[in-house]
Amino acid sequence: MFLKIIYFIEEKMKIINSNFKKGEVKIQVQNLDDLWYLSTIIDTNDIIKGKTQRKIKVGQKQQAAKKTIFLKIQVEKVEFSKHTSILRASGKIIAAPEEIPLGTSHTFNLEPNTIISIEKQNWLNFQKDKLKEASTSKPLHIMIVVLDREEAFFAIMRKYSYELLSNIQG
Question: What is the CA radius of gyration of the chain?
Answer without folding.
Answer: 20
